[in-house]
Write a structure and sequence with these properties.
- The complex is a heterodimer.
- By secondary structure, chain A is mostly helical.
- Chain A contains 11 helices and 2 strands, in the order ββααααααααααα.
- Chain A has one domain.
- In chain A, helix 3 crosses helix 6 and helix 4 runs antiparallel to helix 8.
- Chain B is an alpha/beta fold.
- Chain B has 2 domains: 183 residues, P-loop containing nucleotide triphosphate hydrolases (Rossmann fold, 3-Layer(aba) Sandwich), CATH 3.40.50; 70 residues, no CATH class.
- Chain B is built from 8 helices and 10 strands.
- Chain B has a 6-stranded mixed sheet with strand order 5-7-8-3-9-10, with helices on both faces. In chain B, strands 2-1-4 form a 3-stranded antiparallel sheet, with helices on one face.
- In chain B, helix 4 crosses helix 5.
- The longest helix of chain B has 15 residues.
- The two termini of chain B are 16 Å apart.
- Classes of the chains: A mainly alpha, B alpha/beta.
- The interface between A and B is large, with 43 and 61 residues.
- Strand 2 of chain A pairs antiparallel with strand 4 of chain B, so a sheet runs across the interface.
Chain lengths: 285, 259
C-alpha cells in the first residue's frame, strides 16, 4: 500500500498533558479546546447535519416535518388564544408564530444541552476531541432546526402583510448574543449533567415553567402595571431582544440591560466551570 | 517531526460514581445537614495508574502486558490524551491513531460512506484525502453497493470489514493498539493481517496492549509489565515475558522488521 493516507497537520501534532493546577493553565487548555473546535468546523457542521438527516431519514418530507408541525401548532393555537385574549388575529398571529418558533429553539437547546457530553460518550472515550466540539454540534443542530421553522414565520408575515420595518436590523446584536449564550448553555449544562444525573429533569421543569411565565404566548403589556417584573426574568429578556425587532419594535433599555447582565453571568459561569472540569469530563461519563 | 513519547511519573485516579454520588439532591442534603463524614463524596477511587514512567523514541515497539485491570487500556487512553493524568506528565510528539474501540464512532444508522467521511473529518483530513480514504476503505472492505446503505443492514462480517478497513486506513506516526484488534486471531483473514502488519511497520512508534504473548514477542522490542497500575517490570521482550510467564521464552524469526 504505497498510497497510504497519513495524518495531515490539520490538528496539533504534539500532545503535552501535565496537571498544572493553576487556574491560568486550566484557562489556557480551555482556550486551546475552543481553538481546535474552530478548526474542526467542517466536522461540526457535518455531525449536526447528519443528526437532522438521521431523525427524518425515510420520511417523505424530511426535516420539513418540523416546519409542518410548527405551522399546525401556530395556526391552531393562534385561533384559540386570539379568542381567549380577545385579540385581533392579524396582530396576534405574527407574534405567536415568532414566539413559538424562537421558544422552540430555546427549549430544545436547554433539553439537548443537558446531553451534550453524555450522548457523546462513545466518541469521548475512544478519541481525543475538543470538548467544545460537542457543544458546538448541539448549537448548530438546533440552528438548523430553527432555520426550517423560520419558513412558518415568513409565511405568516406574507399572508398577513405584517412585515416589520427597517428596525428589523436591530435583531442582529440579539442574534449574536443568542449564539454565544447557546454555546455557553450547552457547555454549562452538559458538564453539570455529566456529573449529576438528576439535573436534566430539573432543567426540564424549569424550562416548562419558564414557557408560561415568560410572555411567550401572551403579550408583555397584558401584565399592565406589573410589566416591569418581566425585566427580572432572563428567559423573557433574552427572548425579547430577538423578538421585538422582528415585530417592528425595539426592546426597552431595561430589557437590554437585563439580557446583557444575565448573558455575562451565564458566560462567566460556563467558562469558569469549563476551565475547571474540562479534563474530568472523560472520567464522568 | 520525530515521533516521541514520554511519560513521567504518570498517575491516573478513576472516580467510580455509583448510586448516590451521581445525585445532586443527595449531595446538597448531605452538605446542608452537616454530616460531613469521610465518605461524604461516597465515591470509590481506583488508582488505575501509579507513577508510570518511560520514554519511547523513533523505532520503538512497546508491548504492555498484565492481568485484567492492570491498567493497560487506561495507559493507552492516557497516551491518546483521552484521560488527562492527575499527576506527572504525558508528552506525545507526532500524529497519533489509537485503535481502542472496534466501532469507534461508527454510527449504525449512517451509511458506510457517511461513516467513512466522518472518520476522515475526525482525523482532520482534507477533502481530497477523505475521497482517497473512501476509495481505500471501499476497496478493502468489498462492500460494493452496500456502501450507500445504513451500516445496521450489513452482515456482521461486513461490519467487521468496514470497521477494520477504517481503523487501518489512516497511517499515524504513533500507533496505539488495544488487544481487541488481535482478538479474532484464528479467523483473521490473511488480507487483514497483511494490512495490519503493513500499518504497524509504517508507524514510527507502536504501543500494543495484549494478552497474546506470541504477538507481543514477535512484534515488540520492549515490554512493560503492569501490575495494579504500577510498572512491575520493564525491559526487552524476552526478559520481561520470561519473568511474566515464569518460563524462558525466545524470540521467533521476526515477523516484522523495525521501520
Amino acid at each position: 500500500m504505497t498510497d497510504a493516507i497519513h495524518h495531515r497537520a490539520a490538528r496539533a501534532n504534539t500532545l503535552d498533558l501535565t496537571p498544572d493546577l493553576s487556574f491560568a493553565a486550566r484557562q489556557r487548555m480551555g482556550l486551546l479546546d475552543l481553538a481546535e473546535t474552530v478548526q474542526l468546523w467542517r466536522l461540526c457542521w457535518t455531525l449536526a447535519w447528519l443528526d437532522i438527516r438521521l431523525r427524518y431519514r425515510g420520511s417523505m418530507l424530511g426535516p420539513f416535518w418540523l416546519t409542518l408541525s410548527t405551522a399546525v401548532m401556530v395556526g391552531s393555537m393562534g385561533v384559540v388564544y386570539a379568542i381567549l385574549f380577545r385579540m385581533d388575529l392579524h396582530e396576534y398571529l405574527p407574534f405567536l408564530a415568532l414566539s413559538l418558533v424562537l421558544w422552540g429553539y430555546l427549549g430544545s437547546l436547554m433539553a439537548e444541552g443537558c446531553m451534550t457530553f453524555t450522548t457523546a460518550e462513545g466518541m469521548i472515550r475512544s478519541v481525543r476531541m475538543p470538548y467544545s466540539l460537542y457543544a458546538a454540534r448541539i448549537v448548530v443542530r438546533n440552528l438548523l432546526v430553527l432555520a426550517h421553522n423560520v419558513v412558518v414565520i415568513v409565511a405568516v408575515y406574507a399572508l398577513l402583510h405584517a412585515w416589520p420595518g427597517a428596525d428589523v436590523l436591530m435583531v442582529l446584536p440579539g442574534v449574536a448574543i443568542w449564539l454565544v449564550d447557546s454555546f455557553a448553555v450547552c457547555i454549562l449544562l452538559g458538564a453539570l449533567c455529566a456529573r449529576f444525573r438528576d439535573i436534566p429533569p430539573i432543567v426540564g421543569s424549569i424550562t416548562q415553567m419558564a414557557f408560561f411565565i415568560s410572555a411567550v404566548i401572551w403579550k408583555p403589556d397584558q401584565l399592565g402595571r406589573h410589566e416591569w417584573l418581566l425585566a427580572f426574568n432572563p428567559f423573557f429578556t433574552l427572548l425579547e431582544i430577538v423578538r421585538a425587532p422582528l415585530l417592528g419594535g425595539l426592546p426597552s433599555p431595561a430589557t437590554w440591560t437585563s439580557a446583557l447582565a444575565y448573558s455575562a453571568a451565564l458566560c462567566a459561569a460556563s467558562w469558569l466551570l469549563f476551565a475547571r472540569v474540562r479534563g474530568r469530563i472523560a472520567f464522568w461519563i | 517531526m520525530e515521533a516521541a513519547i514520554s511519560a513521567e511519573h504518570v498517575s491516573v485516579d478513576f472516580p467510580l460514581y455509583h448510586g448516590n454520588a451521581r445525585s445532586l439532591k443527595k449531595m446538597v442534603f448531605r452538605t446542608v445537614s452537616g454530616r460531613v463524614a469521610p465518605d461524604t463524596k461516597n465515591r470509590v477511587v481506583v488508582q488505575a495508574l501509579r507513577d508510570v514512567s518511560f520514554r519511547l523514541r523513533h523505532g520503538d515497539r512497546l508491548g504492555l502486558i498484565g492481568g485484567n485491570g492492570a491498567g493497560k487500556t487506561t495507559l493507552l487512553r492516557t497516551l491518546a490524551g483521552i484521560y488527562e493524568p492527575q499527576a506527572g506528565r504525558v508528552l506525545v510528539r507526532g500524529s497519533l491513531n489509537a485503535l481502542l474501540d472496534p466501532n469507534l464512532g461508527m454510527n449504525p444508522e449512517l451509511t458506510g460512506r457517511e461513516n467513512i467521511m466522518l472518520r476522515g473529518l475526525y482525523s482532520g483530513l482534507t477533502l481530497p484525502a477523505i475521497r482517497q480514504l473512501e476509495d481505500d476503505v471501499a476497496a478493502f472492505a468489498e462492500l460494493g453497493e452496500f456502501l450507500d446503505l445504513p451500516v445496521r443492514v450489513y452482515s456482521s462480517g461486513m461490519v467487521v470489514r468496514l470497521g477494520f478497513a477504517l481503523a487501518t486506513a489512516i497511517r499515524p506516526q504513533v500507533l496505539l493498539m488495544d488487544e481487541w484488534f488481535l482478538a479474532g486471531d484464528a479467523t483473521f483473514m490473511e488480507k487483514a493481517r497483511v494490512r495490519l502488519e503493513d500499518m504497524v511497520r509504517g508507524a514510527d512508534i507502536l504501543v500494543l496492549s495484549s494478552h497474546a504473548t506470541e504477538v507481543v514477542l514477535s512484534w515488540c522490542t520492549r515490554v512493560i509489565w503492569l501490575d495494579q497500575g504500577r510498572v512491575r517490570a520493564d525491559g526487552t521482550a524476552e526478559a520481561v515475558l520470561s519473568e511474566y510467564l515464569g518460563h524462558p521464552v525466545s524470540r521467533p524469526a521476526p515477523a516484522i522488521e523495525r521501520a
